[in-house]
Amino acid sequence: MAAAKMSVAELETFLRIEFPQTFGGDDVTIESADGETCLLRQRYSERMLRPGGTISGPTLMGLADCAMYVVLLSAIGPVGLAVTTNLNINFLRRGAPGQDVLAAAKLLKLGKRLAVGEVNLLSGTAPDPIAHVTATYSIPNA
Question: Residue 82: which residues within 8 A CB-CB, separation 6 or more?
Fold first, then answer.
């Protein structure tokens, strides 16, 4: 794959304007993005928890989807209308309360109309994923 079309700073600026629901504050930050991979961090908040004190599925799915969007934009540039067409998540173990959640995304295939990738979700500094996601994005005609 080619070099990144958007730097982390460019991604942050674009997403604060185009996707303020998630990137308007400092809950989700982009730690790296290089056109092939990215790493996002969602800072821990009690709003992430479901009854029983574990990180909720909607929190994990949302972060995974954002990570896939970020890695795709880093590869193709500021195409705001690229959209999720499929997202499959496998919950592997409980996410620990009190820990940030990291989303490590990787583009597996980038075509003209579709992109396929995977995301591993990690709890804090633990090395084993708490969830694994595969996702497909539709890329609009240029």
Answer: 69, 72, 73, 76, 115, 137, 138, 139, 140
* pLDDT at residue 99 in the model: 94
CA distance 79 to 98: 34
28: left (phi over 0), alpha (psi -120 to 50) or beta: beta
Task: Give DSSP secondary structure letters for 7-53.
Answer: -HHHHHHHHHHH-HHHHSSSSEEEEEE-SSEEEEEE---GGGEETTT
Q: pTM for this structure?
A: 0.94
Report how far residue 31's alpha carbon sits from residue 98's, in angstroms, rounded to the nearest whole number: 19
Is the pLDDT at 1 greater than 60? The verdict is no
Report whether 76 contacts 102 (CB < 8 A).
no
